[in-house]
């Protein structure tokens, strides 16, 4: 089983010909609402890829919260660990996607900010038989730390997707078995200045050092992922596809990587599988809606092995 501790958001999408500059208005006639949140996205991705998945998080006592929980349940995710909070609305993300599939996102956390470590203790049974605990940074850091500790207590893989980027103590990173940032988040964690584009190898080595030997997987978009772990150091290539929407690709990668690791795969095999899942996701619109099934990923990998 994969246990996901993280956020649930209602995603409000606007598709525009290009992303607006500061102070600029760009016209669009395409708007849609979808289920999202990095935690929920990763839970859906893992479930579609065949894993048994449990979700811990919080929504408001509102129509949006009901919608998000039902979407998870419909995918087969165990939602007994999702709380309905009376004091905050469901989290909301405002997402602008341009014609090339690139995006800008602003998130109002809502109930996600009120999910505490005590909630995890109330659902300790969801950690007892899990093989991996997957966390992100759209909920309080204390709750993330508690989730990673519970993973260690129960002998599960402790996986952190440090997104969105924020400063993290070495102690938190050292509670991880795997740290999975994108290249911008990795640079921030390595203490590099904004806008820098360093080679991923030295950055990954720095993060592995900060994490006390934790495995590091830096996602590089279509280029693939840089792995830094005991068994391997180097690039695992991505797959060339035509992207229509990159929202949720990183979440799909994280869910897929966790699933494959829990099946006993070596990190390189898990990374290749996750790159395939992410590549398929960017060819479709939406975050959860774009996550592929296990059959689709296996067929995609078979096709590329033959090609």
Task: Describe the model.
The protein is α/β, with parallel strands linked by helices. The chain has one domain: UDP-N-acetylmuramoyl-L-alanine:D-glutamate ligase (3-Layer(aba) Sandwich). It is 36% helix and 23% strand. The strands form two sheets. It has a nine-stranded mixed β-sheet with strand order 5-4-1-8-9-10-11-12-13, with helices on both faces. Helix 1 packs across helix 9, helix 7 crosses helix 8 and helix 9 runs antiparallel to helix 10. The longest helix has 15 residues. It starts with a strand and ends with a helix. 51% of the residues are buried.
Residue-averaged pLDDT, rounded? 93
Could you give me the name of the CATH homologous superfamily? Ribokinase
Distance between the termini: 33 Å
Going by helix content, strand content and strand pairing, the class is alpha/beta
**Main sheet, how many strands, which sense, barrel?**
9 strands, mixed
Helix and strand string, N-terminal first? EEEHEHEEEHHEHEHEHHEEEHHH
Global outline: globular
| Percent in helix | 25-40%
Strand tally: 13
Please tell me the total number of domains: 1
Radius of gyration (CA) equals 18 Å
> How many separate helices?
11
CATH-scheme architecture:
3-Layer(aba) Sandwich
Proportion of residues in β-strands: 15-25%
CATH class: Alpha Beta
- CATH topology, by name, is UDP-N-acetylmuramoyl-L-alanine:D-glutamate ligase
Poorly predicted residue ranges = none
């Amino acid at each position: 089983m994969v246990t996901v501790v993280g956020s649930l958001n209602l995603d409000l999408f606007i598709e525009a010909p290009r992303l607006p500059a500061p102070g600029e208005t760009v016209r669009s006639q395409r708007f849609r609402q979808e289920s999202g949140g990095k935690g929920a996205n990763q839970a859906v991705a893992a479930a579609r890829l065949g894993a048994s998945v449990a979700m811990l998080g919080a929504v408001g006592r509102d129509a949006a919260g009901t919608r998000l929980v039902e979407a998870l349940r419909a995918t087969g995710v165990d939602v007994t660990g999702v709380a309905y909070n009376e004091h905050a609305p469901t989290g909301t993300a405002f997402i602008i996607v341009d014609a090339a599939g690139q995006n800008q996102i602003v998130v109002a956390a809502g109930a996600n900010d009120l999910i505490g470590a005590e909630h995890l203790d109330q659902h300790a049974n969801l950690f007892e038989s899990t093989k991996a605990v997957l966390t992100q940074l759209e909920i309080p850091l204390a709750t993330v730390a508690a989730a990673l500790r519970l993973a260690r207590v129960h002998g599960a893989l402790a996986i952190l997707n440090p997104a969105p980027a924020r400063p993290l103590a070495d102690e938190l990173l050292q509670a991880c078995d795997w740290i999975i940032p994108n290249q911008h988040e990795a640079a921030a964690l390595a203490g590099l200045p904004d806008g820098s584009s360093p080679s991923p190898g030295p950055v990954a080595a720095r993060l592995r050092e900060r994490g006390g030997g934790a495995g590091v997987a830096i996602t590089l978009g279509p280029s693939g992922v840089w792995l830094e772990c005991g068994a391997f150091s180097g690039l695992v290539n991505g797959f060339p596809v035509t992207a229509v929407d990159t929202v949720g690709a990183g979440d799909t990668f994280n869910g897929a990587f966790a699933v494959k690791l829990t099946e006993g795969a070596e990190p390189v095999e898990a990374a290749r599988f996750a790159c395939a899942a992410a590549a398929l996701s960017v060819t479709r619109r939406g975050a959860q809606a774009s996550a592929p099934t296990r059959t689709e990923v296996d067929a995609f990998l078979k096709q590329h092995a033959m090609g």
